Amino acid sequence: MIFEGKIILVIGGTGSLGKVLVRRILTDELGKPSKVIIMSRDEAKQQAMRVSYMHRKVTTDEVIYNNFRQLLEFRIGNVRNYADVCSAVKDSNIVINAAALKQVPLCEYFPEQALRTNCLGPANIVRAIRENGYSVDTVVGISTDKACKPVNVMGMSKAIQERIFVSANVLNPKTKFNCVRYGNVLASRGSVIPLFHEQIKAGGPVTVTAASMTRFLLSIDQAVDTIFAVISEGNSGEIYVPIVESATVENMAKAIIGSRNIETEIIGIRPGEKMHEILVSEEECHHVIKRGDYYVILPMLPELRTVNKEAPNALDSEFCSADNVLDLEGTIELMAKHDLNVPAEALPETEELLR
Prior knowledge:
By secondary structure, this protein is an alpha/beta fold. 35% of the residues lie in helices and 19% in strands. The two termini are 35 Å apart.
């Protein structure tokens, strides 16, 4: 039970992924931690999350002033600030970095801001551990398919985060640094599913960037599963990639709309977007193995190749969202499986899934 008695720090823990990650940690499925620390810079989100865990009879003041006595501890801080990172990391055993600027067009307009959060933030974590000798067992960085052959600032900055964490294993052998890389997390804040629902509520139209654009899809719980897997099973410098399905943006919109009289509108690709995403590049596929439900990208640095490959290459070409795309029926079933409010009338064959 890898979390048993551990102090777990989740940086950016008030985001969509962070909240589900913390909830899963607190179920004790990997052991009961001694402390879970949430570090983020938004006091309103922290207060909302704090209140969501409050017992009805506990007053707000009691929760605030007993903050450091609780299993779940909240800290205001910014991953960009080295002192904030040191303060939170120094007593932690496991660090999960979920802090990020992840909106592709926003990062195109403000690349320096993406650099500070997505690159300098991870560098601060590594520096804090290296310069101060903190006894951290594992660090996990959350990456994205956009980091693979990146064409936008968000992906470029996340690709650098991956390199920062992988290379950190060389000079910090007592700490295991890993990353997870995955595609669109269904229903996460800023993703297309909540946008579709809001547009439907407003009477439409539902805006689609490009009909044939494809994206890898996974649920937030699958994203958390990937984090748990790399913490439990990963070796130093490995990047875990969940083996997931993909769909066109058009079929995602159709699945949400169902038989409702809502129009769709093609608006064109936004700044920095790709038509198709890649989770494993053709360059990386030569050092990829399959481990359970995941592709594992082995580190390229020779100093980190201490474990012989336990299996032959799992891929002989890149892992692209344009390959093996779900049809409309498959998209509806996938989205219904993850309870994304697909109308029951969308497809009769999925009626049982929607009950």
